[in-house]
Design goal:
The structure is a single chain. The protein is mainly beta. The protein has 2 domains: 226 residues, YVTN repeat-like/Quinoprotein amine dehydrogenase (Methylamine Dehydrogenase, Chain H, 7 Propeller), CATH 2.130.10; 205 residues, YVTN repeat-like/Quinoprotein amine dehydrogenase (Methylamine Dehydrogenase, Chain H, 7 Propeller), CATH 2.130.10.10. The chain is built from 1 helix and 52 strands. The protein has a 5-stranded mixed beta sheet, with no helix packed on it. The longest helix is centred in the N-terminal third of the chain and has 16 residues.
Length: 591
């Protein structure tokens, strides 16, 4: 039963978060190195990850690692890979610590390193690669030069330029066909199509430009270490700072456009930020998970892929992929950095009250209440007092009079005062032998203000909210013991009570004086019950998912043969869009 309630809670809390699920790739299984320089996607959808110890390719299912092999001239020429670029012809360039190569997908190998026109090896630490609109391929690094390709052979050419060509870093070509080239702490050069140049930021001290980008509006931004984000003011021909929380010291490492009006900024030790272009405002982008704190992460590269997924390269940690779909699952609990609002103990039950507070029962840690904003409102821990919450809480339920009831594993049935945390236990809930009931697993209320009580081992009871009396009646408790072990209850819209037990279901017609009873799906362990908008009853059990139509009296069963992830179904919930979410012994299924 505990597994049933835990999986139910997992589903509810996951949907509540409206967060994003993620994949996290590390050197434990996938990557060649956690020292990541760049993430890139080619036209075939392959994700390439350049690291300081090898090049990684991900096809959506598996990783392939490329490294330098001294015995193979068509291997990677150096394991330190910094730059990746695919030109308009689909040729993928790979820039390494000591040269540039082409990747050949047909042979899954690399070309020989580029050479100078005189045949000498082009031995350069490649920083960036760019194809200009005129088709020229430019590379920067130790040398700023152009690359031509003839029959798969790369040749480097020294251009005659009015700007420095030694020790250059990053490049872009803007809409006016100007070539912008950075030079570390020596600012940035603009080279026009008619070969005229202008030098910017040459007097700036304590600043290193590490990336530059032209957005969809034609504005140019610089990512710097020491001076934060800078934007080019074209009328004044100067770069102006974009402040973050009133300061200019944000250590930005990379820029990536993720929507028409947003840039994602990777930082060196301050996580990721979102820059709203119309508002000219930088805000935090938290992506905490079980492995890291986004507020102190070194985000050295960001990619939005063709499917809208966001890839974040976290230096010294790995690569996180955040899917594009909006309602993915997200974790809440003790492993979360800043959302540990429900303690570290096992979760056993939940109930949302009329005020929107989500009440959460735990195993040996009492009851939590959290707001819709996912903030802890209150925590009532068990203590040595008759009015204490029980150590293990089951079956949280708010009745029509707004009382919050709970079932427990050893203390029976009780009510919680939401304001004080004091509990009052129902002393007159006893079995036919006069013994006080200890194990209460589920609760539902019918239209006549009867609170039905599922017990584990003592059968079915109800508590009359009008008179305050608890009732055990042989009319709805069969003589046999097989119906005494009740795991779940469902009060349906047609005034029928469905009682899930460890030996099938009993359907009780509460509109009849003699509580006419029908047996459904006998010799099955029933874990959960759900009524859909059409009045069909869905049954999670030990042998799959069953659908009961009360009108036609037909029963359908769905198993792994129909795509269910496991035949052990523990919880069922509809989402209001004609989908059923089904938690099983092997993960979640959607039907």
């Amino acid at each position: 039963m505990m597994k049933h309630t835990i999986l139910t809670l997992f589903m509810f809390l996951s949907l509540l978060c409206h967060g994003q699920s993620y994949k996290f790739f590390t050197t434990d299984r996938e990557l060649s190195s956690s020292l990541i320089n760049k993430i890139y996607q080619d036209r075939n959808g392959m994700i390439w990850i350049a690291t300081e110890d090898g090049l990684n390719r991900y096809d959506g299912a598996k990783f392939i690692i490329y490294k330098h092999d001294p015995q193979n001239e068509h291997s990677l020429c150096h394991n330190y890979v910094r730059a990746l670029y695919e030109d308009s012809k689909g040729r993928l360039f790979v820039g390494t610590y000591n040269g540039i190569q082409l990747y050949d997908p047909a042979t899954d190998s690399f070309s020989a390193r580029a050479q100078w026109e005189d045949g000498k090896t082009f031995d350069s630490n490649i920083m960036s690669i760019l194809e200009c609109r005129n088709g020229e391929i430019w590379v920067s690094g130790n040398n700023l030069c152009t690359i031509t390709i003839t029959q798969g052979k790369l040749t480097a050419h020294k251009p005659d330029l009015p700007i420095p060509t030694q020790m250059t870093d990053y490049m872009i070509e803007d809409r006016q066909h100007n070539l912008w080239v950075t030079q570390g702490e020596n600012g940035i050069y603009r080279l026009s199509a008619d070969n005229k140049s202008k030098h910017f930021l040459k007097q700036e001290k304590g600043m290193t430009i590490v990336d530059l980008y032209e957005d969809n509006y034609g504005d140019i931004y610089l990512a710097t270490i020491g001076k934060g984000l800078l934007k080019y003011n074209q009328p004044a021909e100067e770069f102006i700072p974009i402040l973050y929380k009133g300061k200019q010291n944000l250590p930005i490492k990379s820029i990536c456009q993720i929507s028409q009006n947003e840039l994602c900024l990777g930082t060196d030790g301050k996580g990721a930020k979102i820059f709203n272009i119309p508002k000219q405002l930088i805000t935090d982008y938290p992506f905490d998970n079980n492995y890291l704190d986004s507020g102190t992460s070194k985000v050295h590269s960001v990619l939005k892929d063709n499917a809208g997924n966001l890839w974040i390269a976290i230096y010294q940690k790995g690569v996180m992929m955040i899917p594009a779909q909006p309602n993915s699952f997200k974790y809440i609990g003790y492993k979360s950095i800043n959302k540990n609002i429900i303690g570290s103990n096992c979760i056993t039950s939940l109930c949302r009250d009329h005020e929107g507070i989500l009440w959460i029962g735990t195993d040996n840690d009492g009851i939590y209440g959290i707001t819709t904003e996912l903030k802890q409102k209150v925590h009532y821990a068990p203590h040595d007092s008759p009015s204490s919450v029980p150590s293990t809480v089951f079956g949280l339920y708010e009745d029509s009079e707004r009382n919050l009831w709970f079932g427990s594993y050893t203390n029976g049935l009780g009510r919680l005062d939401k304001k004080t945390g004091r509990c009052s236990y129902l002393q007159n809930l006893t079995d036919k032998n006069g013994n006080r009931i200890q194990r209460v697993y589920d609760l539902v209320e019918d239209q006549d203000k009867r609170l039905w009580i599922a017990t584990m081992g003592a059968g079915l009871f109800y508590y009359d909210l009008k008179t305050g009396q608890s009732v055990y009646d042989p009319k709805f408790n069969a003589a046999t013991d097989k119906y005494k072990w009740i795991s779940c209850l469902l009060y349906a819209g047609d005034n029928h009570l469905y009682v899930g037990t460890y030996d099938g279901i009993r359907c009780i017609n509460l509109g009849t004086d003699d509580f006419k009873t029908e047996e459904i799906l006998s010799r099955h362990i029933i874990h959960s019950l759900y009524e859909d908008s059409q009045g069909n009853i869905w049954i999670g059990n030990s042998d799959g998912l069953a659908e009961w139509n009360p009108q036609t009296r037909q029963l359908k069963t769905y198993t792994t043969a129909h795509g269910l992830s496991s035949n052990a179904v523990y919880a069922i919930k509809g989402d209001g869009q004609d989908n059923l979410w089904i938690s099983t012994n092997a993960g979640m299924s959607r039907f």
